[in-house]
Amino acid sequence: GLLLAALLVSHMLLTKEGVTSMPICPNGSVNCQLSLEELFERAVKLSHYIHYLSSEMFNEFDERYAQGRGFIAKAVNSCHTASLTTPEDKEQAQQIHHEDLLNLILGVLRSWNDPLIHLASEVQRIKEAPETILWKAVEIEEQNKRLLEGMEKIVGRVHSGEVENEIYTPWDGLPSLQLADEDSRLFAFYNLLHCLRRDSHKIDNYLKVLKCRLIHDNNC
Amino acid sequence: DLLQWPQIRKCRSPEMETFSCFWTAGNLYNLTVPRILQLLYKKSNEEDWKECPDYITSGQNSCYFNASYTSVWTPYCVQLASKNEVYDKKCFSVDEIVLPDPPVHLNWTLLNTSQTGIHGDIQVRWDPPPTADVRKGWITLEYELQYKEVNETKWKELKPRLSTMVPLYSLKTARDYEIRIRSRQRTSEKFGEFSEILYVSFSQIGIGCDHCTEEVEFPWFLVVVFGVCGLAVTVISIMLSKQPRLKMLIFPPVPVPKIKGIDPDLLKKGKLDEVNSILACHDNYKTQLYIDDLWVEFIELDIEDPDEKNRASDTDRLLSEDHLKSHSSLGAKDDDSGRASCCEPDIPETDFSASDTCDATSDSDQFKKATEKEEDLLCLNGQDNDESLPSLANTDLQRQHRSTQSENSHLWAAFGDSVESPRPSVHTQISNQNSLASTDFYAQVSDITPAGRVVLSPGQKSKLGRAQCEGCTEQNFTMDNTYFSEADVKKCIAVTSHEENEPRVQEQGYNEDGYFTTESLTMTVANLGASTAAPPSSEMPVADYTSIHIVQSPQGLVLNATALPVPDKEFNVSCGYVSADQLNKIMP
């Protein structure tokens, strides 16, 4: 009983404003369908949570490993998703078609699936990695999967035609995470976490724009 | 003044659509030809540094990048330079430098007031900063509200929230409040600037409370009272709780008086033998000079066949005597005041030197033996009384056992025999002894009369009518194996001579061969009930043992007078033996 209570409390604390299970379909009925609004609500919540975790993780890593190494100066990096042409300002975001934007979102999410898996496993090999970083990496990877599923559902609902090119960029940064030299290895992690924070912010923003546009008719 | 280089102070984007950078010029400006500072920027995917597009819009020493120049998630680098010199450089991306403008249009409305009218609830509303495009979801803001009373200094903060309205509860209607709000991007840490202050005054809308009483101060008195009550309840519950450990921890038991080596439980239900042996080892309950313990030792040493019965009876007698003598024999005695126990006969703890006591002990042993040898010389010789015997030093006892007394004329042996025969009665007699009959079974020979009588020293301080021995003559020194002091004997004689007509010989005649103590003499006197003789100076502490002053002949020993009016402490004869030197000291 005590263990259960402790687990519940810790779960509540960990999830913070994040993602708690929302009641979906009552009692698992077959034809149950969530409204688009519901889907977007959940998607936005997930994306916000993922961005929040990424941001925290980057800050912790920066504080713990990057101080005094001059990583900031080298942070003019390019993420592996840079090849995806995503809107860079509000105007572009407003002008892009929502289906395209959704596809882009999916593309980014898919592109991050692989790196997140490796991040979760490689970050454990960092010397004396704090527990908070470790579990965040695992959590982000898990939530990203859920968001991907949700987005595919949304796309399925919204998309009126067949799915075109599946947008996706591969990630080849795994060797850099496994470098022997500790400095280089940590810099690789730093860049990856920096890119993760940025891309999660992008996705969060795009989803909110889409939600306001599609659900609330630009009147959030 | 220190030389200050030009520095980029900060770069900031209020709405994630534009951004500005601000710098300080430093004081190089004044020194030489005014230098023109330039801000150059470069996107990460570009090669060339470009100059700032707008130096004006954001004020002096600033550069403003409008929406067309802003790419949100693109890394920028800016540098402050003039001609060929770079003073400062910063790299960032726009989504990292978002600091929203303050909210606008703050207002409040009254929700309700309390019944007493002292407190009221209000709802505060505001609008997001106009620059931030919240409606389209481009930026998501959260707000933090702070409020305080007008004359306070510290602001109270509410938790950041997404909504643009918040209720404030339990504000005092008699006071005025100030409210301010600031905002930040939802996943950022830094807040933007505060909004303008909103003033809340209840009196303005007519619900000001003029007659309200001041709020009750913190009820310290109640807190103290309840705290004390709680503490008392806790203490009582601890005291009444069954948990012995807790109880012992908080209320440690007060140690009861104890005699080292004596277990009170043993006394309650232990065997008498053990108790007696333990008590015998402790002479702590001695309050007088007369000390039985050595006599106990004597007895034990003397009786060669370890007859437990004898011992039992002896110890019983001793026990009874002790009980009679000292009320607190089983009570709390100071452990340290004791002498050597019988377990350690050679170890005394007296005021005398150890050697003395040891010697005393050994001397008394010798003395004992001497007395044994000379028992024939003692008053038993001329006595034809077959009834003489060692009963216990109790007249009553003697009376009763007159007939049962054996004919053993030995002092010690007589005692032992007498013990044997009338033991049961002895026991009863012992138990029935009253305080008066606190005679001693063993007493020190203080003198041997020419007639062969042994004069015993009195055993106790408070011997009644020590010299009251009416009708006792030298030859009528009957009684049990007790001893008289010479002085007492003389008195006795005197008395006897004085009252020869007292038909009391019978009383004393039963034990001609025995010895008597002054106590027993006094006993007889008391029994007769006609003691007219003045009580002797029996109040004086009399030494039970004195040194042998002269050994006159094989027939006798003369002992020093023992009636010494000395204070107890000085004459703390633990062994009951006074050396000649000490005696001389004491004697006037």
Automatic annotation (TrEMBL), chain A:
CDD domains from the entry? prolactin_like
Record keywords, A-Z:
Disulfide bond, Hormone, Secreted, Signal
Residue intervals passing through the bilayer: none
Do you know which PROSITE patterns this protein is assigned to?
A: SOMATOTROPIN_1 (PS00266), SOMATOTROPIN_2 (PS00338)
Location in the cell: Secreted
Q: One GO CC term of this entry? A: extracellular space
Please cite one Gene Ontology biological process associated with this protein.
Answer: regulation of hormone levels
Disulfide bond among the record's keywords?
A: yes
Known InterPro entries for this protein?
Answer: 4_helix_cytokine-like_core, Somatotropin/Prolactin, Somatotropin_CS
Q: Does the keyword Disulfide bond apply?
A: yes
GO molecular function terms noted in the UniProt entry: hormone activity
Q: Where is the signal peptide?
A: 1-21
Describe the family membership recorded for this protein in Swiss-Prot or TrEMBL.
Belongs to the somatotropin/prolactin family.
Q: What is this protein called?
A: PRL protein
Q: Which organism is it from?
A: Agelaius phoeniceus (Red-winged blackbird)
| Underlying gene | Prl_0
From TrEMBL, chain B:
Q: Where in the cell is it found?
A: Cell membrane; Secreted
- Report the source organism: Agelaius phoeniceus (Red-winged blackbird)
* Listed GO MF terms: cytokine receptor activity
Q: Which UniProt keywords apply?
A: Cell membrane, Disulfide bond, Endocytosis, Glycoprotein, Membrane, Phosphoprotein, Receptor, Secreted, Signal, Transmembrane, Transmembrane helix
Identify its protein family. Answer: Belongs to the type I cytokine receptor family. Type 1 subfamily.
GO CC terms of this entry: external side of plasma membrane; extracellular region
Q: What Gene3D superfamilies does its record include?
A: Immunoglobulins
Q: Does the keyword Phosphoprotein apply?
A: yes
Membrane topology category: Single-pass type I membrane protein
Q: Which residues cross the membrane?
A: 218-240
Q: What is this protein called?
A: Growth hormone receptor
BP-aspect Gene Ontology terms: endocytosis
Domain Fibronectin type-III stretches: 102-205
